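agent> Task received from the user: take the single chain below, predict its 3D structure, and emit structure tokens. No templates, no multimer pairing.
agent> Plan: (1) validate residues, (2) run structure prediction, (3) serialize to tokens, (4) report one or two observations.
agent> Step 1 OK, no nonstandard residues flagged.
tool_call: predict_structure(input=
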Amino acid sequence: MKVSAHDVLVLLGVSLGASVAITVAGLGLLKLVRKRSLRDSAVVVALTPVLTVVVASIVATIAMFLSTEQFGVLVATVLFAGCGGVVTSLVLARSIMRGSNALRAAAGALSRGEPYVAPAGTPSAELDALAHDLEIAHARLHEARVKERDIEESRRELIAWVSHDLRTPLAGIRAMAEALEDGVVSSDGDRALYHQRIRVEVDRLARMVDDLFELSRINAGALSLSLERLALPDLVRDAVATAWPVAHAKGVNLTSFANQTPLVDVDPHALRRVVGNLLGNAIRHTPYDGSVAVETGDDGEFAFLAVSDECGGIPPAEIGNVFDVAYRGSSARTPRPDGGAGLGLAIARGIVEAHEGHITAENVGLGCRFTIKIPLSRSGVRSPA
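)
tool_result: status=success, residues=385
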């Protein structure tokens, strides 16, 4: 049967109208089954084009564009094609559902803290990417859990150490205060001595509280730095001048060597505390007539400050723990009555890392060497020694 141009346009319009109507109906069905199985959605997607062709064929037959025989052949062909599409969609949906279920099981295990098993054989690049993201999330969660456990363990250890260290001076203060109240101490000289000892213990408690406050700010990420550009040797000279009377009283030789050093951007107050802590530890643990040396320099990327002593060294099994909270060591670095709560080096590490630097400890010669490295100032201006 010869079809005119007008009839062709009418047939195209009918096909377009049928396609739009069936597509809208298909989208409506997809919305209805969106919370059902993916299999139902796949069937709707596969049948939508089939129904479009069938409806268009029926309209064309009614309009006498197709004979009854042609209509039957066309509908049969479309139905056969539709069955193939439905089967293919169901297979694809089954594969996607299997991969989706595997990902859901992996995510559930992840949320419960169980060992993560990456799903194998996901059927699409998108699900592969999701599986990869889940694996990354698992690694980060594992790292966070390990860090949380370490922090909790460190917190418990800190509480145990500080509780012990707080009780000791408090017990001494209480005993001396009771002795003064009861009149056990009668002479003016003894009373003055007791008052002096009480003040010393109070100062010790105040330092411990300050250390705890500083460490809590570091652990909470609330340490605020007021950066200034300065020459590292100037800071070292100030710290050495402060520590010299203590070293002299103990018979320890304290020296410093300042090479030509670039400027650094640091918080002077915070870094002086670090250097003062390192010098105090070095002097305290160095025997009479021993030496403590401070050296500054740079390696082209970092400015460094090194404090070396003659303490006898740190046991190899402990050197990796010297910056841990409450570490006070053994052997050559045995805790002493004038020591603190073992927070100084932990605070030093926190302050140095807040400057985007790092601090290390190693045994060298007759003692050990603590080295601080701070990034150079971006100005690159060098200061004379």
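agent> Step 4: summary for the user.
Strands lie at 228-231, 253-258, 261-266, 291-298, 302-308, 358-364, 367-375, 382-383.
agent> Done.
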